[in-house]
Amino acid sequence: MPAVSADTLTLPRLRAATPDQTxxxxxxxxTGPRGFEGExxxxxxxxxxxxxxxxxxxxxxxxxxxxDYEPGEPKGTSWHPHRGFETVxxxxxxxxxxxxxxxxxxxxxxxxxxxxTAGAGIxxxxxxxxxxxxxxxxxxxxxxxxxxPAADKxxxxxxxxxxxGQAALLTTxxxxxxxxxxxxxxxxxAGPGSTHTPITFAHATVTPGAxxxxxxxxxxxxxxxxxxxxxxxxxxxxxxxQGQLVVFGKGDRITATADAGQDSNRPALxxxxxxGRPIREPVFQYGPFVMNTKQQLVEAIEDFNAGRLGVIPxxxxxxxxxx
Length: 323
Prior knowledge:
The protein is mostly beta strands. The protein is built from three helices and 26 strands. Strand 2 and strand 3 form a beta hairpin.
């Protein structure tokens, strides 16, 4: 269950749709394949099979878990570099530690978000805290990569820690859905995240039988990823379930409806709603580097090998591996 919750009857409400507004049609529904990241934690590759033009300004997204670890099982990543984009780690349930070569870091837990602008280059690690490794427990989160435009590729790295309680909370006109805005804004309700690329990043919980209808900027693309549950999306009521990504076409509003019957262990339709203004610049990606040219990729690798992307601090966290 999401850590950040609220009584929707007490929250600000979105205005109902007006006759002149159009629902965005569904362009595609894709199912993300499952894999493993870092030292072996399970992920769903949410953007697999989707064109970069439909994703722009986003580059990559993993759903981490949802998994209930036994003691000794939790795993993370080792130290690794990034350049040219921003990483967003949103912890829905559980805890993750972050540390980077610029001094940023801390514990991300229970609805918090770590927003790291890699910019010119950074080294970092994400790993479960020792107590979670010892005890086991629920682990569920999202890692999203947001591209930076060419003008910002080499900006100074930055770290933001956004606690779950900082998210802007609102609901639909009938109070049937809880919406947590982490970055960007919806109908004047702004989240705490500061972004270089204009985007909106939100998490919505839609109760069984209820309908989510959100106004959406016409110059933004629109994506919905199903974290858990079952429902339908768009004016044609396309069925969706956990692990699927919806790409919407042009229009004024994003719509989704939760099935009246949900699994007992997944009592609502949980959706990640995101979109942004496309950058429309060339993208050359190689592993943890997202640049505009092949030459910039070569330079990124050379700079990393020469130690110019940062130095692992002497008090560095280290990954937890299998016993």
